UniProtKB/TrEMBL annotation:
Top-level division of the source organism's lineage: Bacteria
Protein name: oxoglutarate dehydrogenase (succinyl-transferring)
Lineage: Bacteria, Pseudomonadati, Pseudomonadota, Alphaproteobacteria, Rickettsiales
Biological process per Gene Ontology, one example term: tricarboxylic acid cycle
Residues covered by the Dehydrogenase E1 component domain: 186-496
GO cellular component, one term: oxoglutarate dehydrogenase complex
Length: 604
């Protein structure tokens, strides 16, 4: 067994660490007694040449050129890679008890004097190694990726994670702060002006806006031309205004009882938090088209709609990104989520990878997580497709930006789904008419005293000297004035168009008698042409021996065309053949269509 075989099998990963340690102890006693390949592997390690490319760029000072790292140390490192997320600081409310990792067994087995020149040559201590491992894997982000079967993906993620820059530049910090300030002020404005109205506030999960803005900002550099977003009601109004750029006056008009569409369209409309929107945003000199899909009250039902739209646009030659925003209870609780994850990688349904954002406010209506699921995380369903999951503390906007960048880069490279689990909270009840103190009194006592993320992040930037308190107040004053101006204009506002009649849908109108006369065409096919098509379908290539039943069926179909008497199956085959002969695509999707489900079977 060669070293390359060891790399392919991932023998040094945390799950195998104890086994490898036993083999290594045998190597120390008698290297020649080991099976083929093991002695060579350990010799290379002790010579400071691990050459295990699957391990990725740990970038620890301990792994610098010329130092050796024993399997025990690798076991410790991989233990943190695999399980560090369990001890990560994810809950902004601090109500979730942080557990220990149980890595003491690894520590007690490591002898700095025995396990290679790691400590002596580099001056890198075990304490420093632990400090760095905890900072990377047990901080405000919890990474789940070591269960992924692809060595290439694991290695890529290790390199990215262990060299990740968590702190944003000064300019980016200011932008993050003002995104959060706008979101908070808009929600508070609605809370004051329209008390008791259902709006399903994003407050507590404000960083959803930060994540979406980061996705849009990164899209041009990754070649994305269009983004299709699907989400439920939570935070939708802020997404419509802040992200999709629906005018504030239009939103306030609807809160005041106005319709979202021109009256001449004669449509009944829907509640504000179901409506979609489309817009174009200029980003880095490129125009990105955004579509927010309309949404029913049925959670996660919009997922296959978004996936289908993305698939159709990709087939049309566009570079399209799908983004799905979920709630924690719905993501683990609704079967359509698992169905969508599963089919998204199947040929004929591929979407190029969906970015999933879970707004994990740690409660489903009034149900606590321990009463809603048996899994550790609400995101565990994503493991079925080997999708990486990045858990992040919703009170750390810069950590949210970091994992969003990582998610976008992963999706771009591997064309696979990726999950961002934003652990946050819900400042009010399920809707603004609900009193959460009845069902979650301890949580909401804590929330009532908890500083908003816009406030706490603003304090942080003031302390860093990135922005002044005066600048923040001036920004808030200016934005409040903008909202007041929009509110004053509501009475005179009249919607002039429906955005869903724009773009490729422009020109659509209500059907009236006779309006399709100009579009009618002869869809028939000449008998001679049908016979030629059936003869082609029934022609058996040389060297192929048909099943007797199939042969009889084909002969019956050919004779049926000749005698002007065909069955349903023959008619369907001829219809498909006539389209294919004209270079028109035919899509047969699903088990029943591909098999040709019989009428008898359908009735059974």
């Amino acid at each position: 067994m060669s070293n390359s075989s060891f790399r392919r099998d991932g023998c040094l990963y945390g799950d195998n660490a104890l086994f490898v340690e036993e083999v290594y102890e045998g190597y120390e006693k008698c290297a020649n007694a080991l099976p083929d390949g093991w002695g060579e592997l350990f010799t290379r390690i002790e010579e400071g040449k691990p050459e295990d490319s699957d391990r990725g760029g740990t970038d620890y000072e301990a792994c610098s050129s010329g130092t050796s790292v024993s399997p025990k140390v690798w076991g410790l490192i991989d233990f943190f890679r695999s399980h560090g997320h369990i001890a990560a600081d994810l809950d902004p409310l601090g109500l979730t008890e942080r557990v220990g990792l149980g890595h003491e067994e690894y520590l007690s087995s490591i002898d700095p004097n025995k396990d290679g020149s790691l400590w002596q040559k580099s001056g890198f201590s075990l304490d420093r190694l632990l400090e760095k491992l905890k900072k990377i894997y047990c901080g405000k982000i919890g990474f789940e990726f070591m269960y992924i079967r692809s060595n290439e993906e694991r290695t890529w993620l290790q390199n990215k994670i262990e060299n990740m820059r968590l702190e944003c530049a000064g300019k980016e910090k200011r932008e993050l702060l003002f995104h959060l300030q706008e979101t908070e002020l808009f929600e508070q404005f609605l809370h004051v002006k329209y008390p008791g109205y259902k709006r399903f506030s994003v407050e507590g999960g404000d960083v959803l806006i930060v994540a979406l803005e980061e996705i849009i900002s990164l899209s041009p550099s990754l070649g994305v031309q269009e983004i299709v977003i699907g989400m439920s009601h939570r935070g939708r109004l802020s997404v419509l205004t802040k992200v999709m750029k629906k005018p504030y006056v239009a939103m306030l008009h609807e809160f005041s009882g106005g319709m979202a569409y021109p009256s001449e369209l004669n449509v009944t409309g829907d509640v504000k938090y179901h409506l979609g929107y489309s817009s174009d945003r200029e980003v880095q000199g490129e125009v990105i088209h955004l579509s927010l899909a309309y949404n029913p009250s049925h959670l996660e039902s919009v997922n296959p709609v978004v996936m289908g739209r993305v698939k159709g646009k990709i087939d049309s030659g566009l570079s399209v990104l799908g983004v799905l925003v979920h709630g924690d209870a719905a993501f683990i609780g609704q079967g359509v989520v698992a169905e969508g994850l599963n089919i998204g990688g199947v040929e004929g349904y591929t979407t190029g990878g969906i970015v999933h954002i879970v707004v994990n406010n740690q409660v489903g209506f009034t149900t606590s997580p321990n009463s809603a699921r048996t899994s550790l995380y609400c995101s565990d369903v994503a493991r079925i497709i080997d999708a990486p999951v990045f858990h992040v503390n919703g009170d750390d906007p810069e950590a949210v930006v970091a994992v969003t960048k990582l998610a976008m880069e992963y999706r771009d490279k591997f064309k696979k789904d990726v999950v961002i689990d934003v652990v946050c909270y819900r400042r009010y009840g399920h809707n603004e008419g609900d009193e959460p103190m009845f069902t979650q009194p301890l949580m909401y006592k804590c929330i009532a005293q908890h500083r908003t993320v816009a406030g706490s992040y603003g304090d942080k930037l003031v302390a860093e000297g990135v922005v002044s308190t005066q600048e923040i107040e001036e920004f808030r004053k200016k934005f409040r004035a903008e909202l007041d101006k929009a509110h004053a204009a509501v009475s005179a506002y009249k919607p002039m168009k429906a955005d869903w009649f724009e773009g490729c849908w422009k020109g659509l109108r209500y059907a009236v008698p006779g309006c399709f006369d100009d579009y009618m065409s002869d869809t028939g096919v000449a008998g001679e042409r049908l016979l030629a098509l059936m003869e082609a379908m029934c022609s058996i290539p040389e060297g192929i021996s048909l099943d007797k039943k199939v042969s009889r069926m084909l002969n019956a179909r050919l004779n049926g065309v000749k005698s002007d008497s065909i069955d349903w199956g023959a008619g369907e085959a001829l219809a498909f053949a006539s389209l294919l002969a004209e270079n028109k695509r035919v899509r047969l999707s699903g088990e029943d269509c591909g098999r040709g489900l019989s009428r008898t079977a359908m009735q059974g």
